[in-house]
Amino acid sequence: MSIRTERVSRMLQREIAEILSKDFSDQLKPLVTVTGVRVTNDLSIASVYVSILGDGDEQRKALLEHLKDLASQIRFSLAARIRHQLKSVPSLRFFLDESLTEAARLEELFGKINEEREGPDAVS
Predict the structure, then answer these.
(1) Dmax over Cα atoms in the chain, in whole Å?
(2) CA distance 124 to 122
(3) Is 122 part of a structural domain of the chain?
(4) I need a labelling partner for 106 at 20 to 30 A (CA). Which of 67, 85, 87, 97 fits?
(5) Do residues 43 and 9 touch, judged by C-beta distance below 8 A?
């Protein structure tokens, strides 16, 4: 990734996060966090990775679909904010970032392994 695409990615992440928290918070009730943005080299497409705190996979998937439906409205809001920094606003594609969920699952597994090692037969 070039320096320009990295800089644009960081700017888009910051702006999209603010747009979601201020303009769309009523439609996105469970907490939605923008964890990363990757733009193509020609800056035409931005892949937006989000983490969604919810009560289950179905709720997270439904909210992700809702975000995808809102993509054009979010892009319009984004255009108003960054019109002086970029000539054109990339199209937005939303993806669920499972890394936080996966990290929590791994932490739980490591905890269980440590408990088994420290069990009644453990040697100090």
Answers:
(1) 66
(2) 6
(3) no
(4) 67
(5) no
Boundaries of domain holding 52: 3-117
Q: How many domains are contained in the chain?
A: 1
Q: Is residue 62 part of a domain?
A: yes
Inform me whether the pLDDT recorded for 100 exceeds 80: no
> What CATH number does residue 54 fall under?
3.30.300.20
**pLDDT at residue 105 greater than cutoff 70:** yes
Would you state the pLDDT for residue 30? 66
- Please answer whether residues 13 and 51 qualify as being in contact, where contact means their C-beta atoms are separated by less than 8 angstroms: no
DSSP the chain: --HHHHHHHHHHHHHHHHHHHHTSTTT--S-EEEEEEEE-TTS-EEEEEEEE--SSHHHHHHHHHHHHHHHHHHHHHHHHHHTTT-SSPPEEEEEE--HHHHHHHHHHHHHHHHHHHTSTT---
Structural domain includes residue 11: yes
124 lies in some domain: no
Confidence label for 69 from pLDDT (cuts 50, 70 and 90): very high
| pTM, entire model | 0.78
